[in-house]
Design brief:
The complex is a heterodimer of chains A (287) and B (285).
Chain A lengths: L1 H25 L3 H4 L7 E3 L11 E3 L3 H5 L11 H32 L5 H10 L5 H14 L6 H25 L3 H9 L4 H30 L2 H6 L7 H7 L9 H29 L8
Parallel strand pairs in A: 1-2
Chain B lengths: L1 H26 L17 H8 L1 H31 L7 H9 L6 H12 L5 H8 L11 H29 L3 H9 L4 H29 L3 H6 L10 H11 L3 H35 L1
Helix pairs in contact in B: 2-12, 3-7, 3-9, 5-7, 7-9, 9-12, 11-12
Classes of the chains: A mainly alpha (287), B mainly alpha (285).
């Protein structure tokens, strides 16, 4: 019992401290963020503080500076945040909808070689992005898709499908067939039965799937970095690109930017949390 | 009709995965480069070069070390946390959400940000270590510690994933089984060994598979913390990036990625077969 609470407290503290430090960094001035004495305690409105003090003057400079174009970058943070927002949400919607349809197909019909197809779908997740990036780059150049939002949306949709199909299949397997069969008898077409009867019952599963798709497309780096150098640069690429800048890393901006960046995802996860645990069983466990 | 449901996904995946793979298998037999000199077939030259390239062997070793190290620590921590979080208690939802936050963070940015924590002079970790009088390890520059730092960051980010799936698998074990065990007066260890572990194994195994394949592709953290061309931390993906984009040798890089791919798919299919067996056994238990 003591062991258990001790372990939880120990890990919880260790795991939360970096996050807390991120939040503290976000309200520091540039000098305080790289001070050689640890600056731990924010003080509001103190005019002068001793250099050796562990207190520092809290400031919102970091957040304000997000609106400015940092030297070496082409656009300000919010421009990139907008790119991520468009690409992340469109690809998530795409992956969840397509994945649900596909999972329904595999769940309800006898499809020849279903096991092999499902393994193929899962195996696309094993693929290192860099292994396919050159052909995709060439393909995108000839289709005018490089440096566009649509290009990344298509890619992220495709790479999230593996997880979406597998998660949704677990969910749809659990929805009794009797509902749609009754609807089919009532004269619904298969598609109508799917949309009106199955989809509403699959919403919790879709929410959980959306959480995972959103996390991975929001944070994706390898494709975003290699396919886009202008036009649709996302936030991870923007921040990673600030490294090696002669002016040094703007740590308080990074802190502030990351806080704003993860806020929507945390919010979305909190909204879907009631279904989260039920949602990730991949149908391996039958109730 | 049934084709209509599954076809869009399969077509999209074939376009985005199989077509590029076919294209790059062709590239792997050529001298293709980024600048675009006229393409010539070089036969198996790229492949024979690859097996004699010490960087490739080194990257394989680094990646294997990284995968085994990160996934095993994440599994033990995540499963342990899930066992501790099983029962209901006040504030559980809040605690769980808090514990899950690291996996929502962008790895490419977190890698950069962790350098602020781990920095030798102004990093908070070494400042704290100095306060308690332990030495000043150079986390991100000492060749012996770099990989360990990457592991640390990866464990921080992805233990929550193991926790989440482990907890889901534990929650799905029906309570009547435990009630039956209580009637039989089975010891706690026996209950864990005979019920909890085997019944949660299939799903936790799937989580291990997903984590392992993600760790095999590890790229974001390496790029952020040490860069693509650092011998101590050059994973296969970092090596691929180096050969493909820095050296510009696309044909060579395609050959490299093919060997990785065959390895990954082979390992994954063996593991998946093992999981199916586990599941059958759990179903029979």
């Amino acid at each position: 019992m003591i062991l258990r609470w001790g372990f939880l407290a120990f890990y919880g503290t260790l795991s939360t401290l970096p996050l807390l430090w991120l939040a503290v960094t976000a309200i520091k001035s540039r000098l305080d963020s790289i001070s050689t004495t640890p600056k731990l305690l924010p003080v509001f409105g103190a005019a002068t503080l001793d250099r050796g003090s562990i207190r520092f003057d809290a400031t919102l400079q970091g957040f304000v500076a997000l609106g400015e174009v940092y030297s070496g970058a082409a656009n300000a943070y919010y421009h990139h945040l907008f790119n991520t927002l468009v690409i992340g949400s469109c690809s998530t919607i795409g992956a969840v909808l397509l994945g649900t349809c596909c999972a329904y197909g595999f769940s309800r019909f006898h499809i020849p070689g279903a096991r092999d197809w499902l393994f193929f779908i899962l195996s696309t997740r094993f693929l290192p992005p860099l292994a396919v990036v050159i052909p995709i780059l060439m393909m995108y150049r000839s289709l005018d898709l490089s440096n566009t939002h649509l290009g990344l949306i298509i890619l992220y949709t495709a790479f999230n499908l593996s997880l979406a199909v597998w998660l949704m299949k677990g969910f749809i397997d659990d929805i009794p067939k009797a509902y749609e069969e009754a609807a089919l008898v009532d004269g619904y077409t298969r598609w109508q039965a799917f949309v009106r009867v199955v989809l509403p019952r699959a919403v919790p599963g879709m929410a959980v799937t959306a959480v995972f798709c959103l996390i991975s497309s929001w944070n994706e780096y390898a494709f975003a970095m290699t396919l886009n150098n202008r036009g649709a640069v996302t936030v991870p690429v923007y921040f990673a690109g600030l490294q090696g800048n002669p002016e040094g890393m703007p740590w308080s901006q990074v802190g502030a930017g990351v806080l704003l960046f993860v806020a929507p995802i945390v919010l979305f996860t909190v909204l879907a949390r009631r279904h989260l645990l039920r949602g990730v069983t991949f149908g391996t466990i039958k109730q | 009709m049934k084709v209509g449901f599954v076809a869009p996904v399969l077509v999209l995946l074939l376009c985005v995965n199989i077509f590029p793979l076919c294209y790059s298998i062709w590239l792997s037999f050529t001298n293709a480069d980024l600048v675009g000199v006229d393409l010539q077939s070089v036969g198996v030259l790229n492949y024979s070069f690859l097996f004699s390239d010490p960087r490739y062997a080194e990257a394989l070793r680094t990646t294997a070390l990284f995968v085994v190290g990160s996934v095993s620590v994440e599994l033990v921590l995540g499963y342990g946390l899930a066992l501790s979080l099983r029962d209901r208690f006040r504030g559980k939802a809040v605690l769980l959400t808090l514990l899950l936050i690291p996996m929502m963070m962008p790895p490419a940015v977190m890698g950069v940000y962790w350098k602020l924590i781990l920095d030798g002079s102004y990093g908070i970790l070494n400042q704290l270590l100095a306060a308690v009088g332990i030495g000043q390890p150079q986390w991100t520059t000492d060749p012996d510690l770099k990989l360990l730092s990457l592991l640390l960051i990866d464990v921080w980010m992805w233990t929550p994933f193991m926790l989440l799936i482990s907890l889901a698998s534990l929650n799905a074990i029906p309570s009547y089984i435990y009630e039956a065990a209580a009637i039989d007066r089975a010891s706690r260890w026996r209950v864990f060994r005979r019920i909890t572990l085997p019944m949660s194994a299939p799903l936790v195994g799937l989580a291990v598979l997903l984590r392992a394949t993600d760790a095999l592709k590890q790229f974001d953290l390496v790029m952020a913390v040490t860069g693509a061309n650092d011998g101590a931390t050059q994973t296969l993906s970092a090596l691929l990036y180096q050969v493909m984009f820095r050296d510009g040798k696309v044909g060579m890089a395609s050959a490299y990625s093919y060997v990785v791919l065959i390895l990954v798919i082979a390992l994954a299919s063996v593991f998946l077969r093992y999981l199916t067996q586990l599941q059958r056994r759990a179903g029979a238990a």
